[in-house]
Amino acid sequence: MDFWIMIQERFVILAVFTAVILVSLFLWFSVWKNRADLSKSLVAVVIGLCVLMLILALMAFIFTISFGYNA
After folding, report:
1. How far apart are CA 51 and CA 1, in angstroms?
2. Domain residue extents for the chain
3. pLDDT at position 8
4. Handedness of CA 48, 50, 52, 55 (dihedral sign)
5. pTM check: above 0.70
6. How far apart are the C-alpha atoms of 29 and 13, rounded to whole Å?
7. How far apart are the C-alpha atoms of 16 and 33, rounded to whole Å?
């Protein structure tokens, strides 16, 4: 129950991190499906940036839930 209250209190910032995660996954998937049409270096750079964005957003998500963002 306490976890659900924490999620409700931090909904706005968690929604931003969730949106970043979803956009990054969508971009990764779309580049992966069209990698035959794109240059290898572009695919590597975009996938690398997507992985970096995913890791940072997940870390920020966990940090926000664990330590808090008290508005």
Report:
1. 32
2. 14-64
3. 83
4. negative
5. yes
6. 25
7. 26
Could you report how far apart the first and last alpha carbons of the chain are, in Å?
A: 20
Q: Which long-range contacts (CB under 8 A, 24 or more apart) does 38-47 make?
A: none
Residue range 20-61, pLDDT digits in tens: 999 999 999 999 999 899 999 999 999 999 999 999 999 998
Q: What is the pLDDT of residue 71?
A: 54
Give, to the nearest 10 degrees, the angle between helix 11-33 and helix 2-9.
80
**How many C-beta atoms surround the C-beta of residue 52 within 10 A?**
11
CB 14 within 8 A of CB 65: yes
Q: How far is CA 51 from the centre of its chain?
A: 9
Q: Residue 69 pLDDT more than 60?
A: no
- Tell me which amino acid residue 46 is: V
